[in-house]
Amino acid sequence: MQSLNIEALIQRPLLMVGGKGGVGKTTVSAALALAAARSGRRTLLVSTDPAHNLSDIFQTRIGNRITPVADGLWALEVDPERELDQYLESVRRQMLAYAAVNQRPALERQLKLVRQSPGAEEAALLERITRIIVDEQGYDLVVFDTAPTGHTLRLLHLPKTMAAWSRGLLARREKGGRLRSLFAHLNRHAKENPFNTDGGEDASAREQKLLAPLKEREARFRTAAEVLLDETRSGFLFVMTAESLPLQETERAVKALQSQKVPVAGLVVNRLLPEMAADITFLRGAYRQQAHCLEKIAEQFSHLPQRHLPLMGEGMEGIEGLEKIVGELRASPPAAEPPVGR
What we know:
Layout: H1 6-9, E1 14-18, H2 25-38, E2 43-47, H3 54-58, E3 67-70, E4 73-77, H4 80-96, H5 104-116, H6 120-135, E5 141-145, H7 149-186, H8 200-228, E6 234-241, H9 244-259, E7 264-272, H10 281-300, E8 306-310, H11 318-331
Helix pairs in contact: 2-11, 4-5, 4-6, 6-8, 7-8
């Protein structure tokens, strides 16, 4: 079993940490980010999980703004609702500039419908995530503490899908713009052409202004997708516990990401009971189940670098608690053989 090299892991510019809910993703994400910061890398830790815990872990208010939490380390808790409001307002401003006065009430109604539509918050969250991936050049490393696995997998598929969708829409818009320019040239006074109030040249300029945000978005989605697929620039780290349900979910998620060519950097098996648990009547059954699950992990994920973390006997909040996890991540390779249940 290959040991996960933490020092090499945090040298990538982008790291996404995910897994089933409740397995310790946020704690591991925070510890990795702190390890990177302690190594001299300017690090941004971003939570995209609606149930944010970064503020609790660092014992300071973070919220939807980049906040310093330690030397060389900043944190951000992305608020999907706020991102959606800002995203729709930007769309509203863009569209109002080109909508006729009598069209504006219908536009406002449509935006209200979009606000309540399924997937709207995910689309807005994707906007923020891609901007962070593409635009945040002031950091050596960005660590994403992601939402539970299913939600994250949908988000990871979206940049590639949205880039293709945007390219298609952009091509249709540009084709339509060329046709409008042709009609404007043939009939410079066509009153029914909303893009032709001052002649063909002005119509072309208006069309380009309208297309500019779409072109920017397409380029950003494409760049984000390229980063996510480049194992030299990014990697997805799974966190799990040695239990049946996290094992099954992680197995499906690893296969899903590998089928999409998203590089999987490795696996952290968290909260392992110590060997002495086999001699404690109350814990003996749990220890046997853990040993059985570790055997399956060794078999099913033998191709992935791994790191095993023990169950801590105390709270891990605050910088002091995270430092202990950093020490475990750096010093404790996984066992060569899984423990044998008794």
